[in-house]
Structures are given as structure tokens and as C-alpha cells.
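Project standup — Tuesday

K.O.: blocked on the structure for the chain from last sprint. Re-posting the sequence here as requested.
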Amino acid sequence: MSRIRLGDEHKAVLVDLYTRTLKTLGDLPCMEEFERPHASFLNRTGLNLSRDDAWRAIVGLLESGRLGRKPRPLSPSGANDGQ
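H.V.: unblocked you, prediction finished:
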């Protein structure tokens, strides 16, 4: 399997689109919400990057420190509020 190499301008688009989502990285690939940033990436860059390759690129950006980690939202029941 070959590794996809994105230029800095394409990485910047992924960073921008990810930071606009409300989901954490762990929640994003399982959600339909990933379809919107993925489709936006394809439209903005003109690249034919698969959903899996886009996910791997986002993970790589997180691991390299170019993406900040998002805090996990509190559960609806408030179970994570320390009470």
C-alpha cells in the first residue's frame, strides 16, 4: 500500500475542515458527519482522496502536532462532570 503525500496547502485544508467539526477524532470516522468535511476537501482541492486516505491524513496531522486535540464532550447525563 502506497502512502499518500499531501502538500502543505492540502494539509491546511484538512486542518481547517477538522477544526470546524464538533466531533473528536475518535468519533469522526464512524459518523456521517465525516462525509461533509471529506466532500468539502474534495471540492476545495480537486484531489480524489479516498475517505480512508483522508482519515489517515488527519491522524497523521494529529500525530505530528499540527492538529490540536479536542476535548471530549460531557455525556448527556452529566456523568463526566465529576459529581
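K.O.: great, moving the ticket to review. Residues 8-20 form the longest helix (13 residues). DSSP finds three helices and no strands in the chain.
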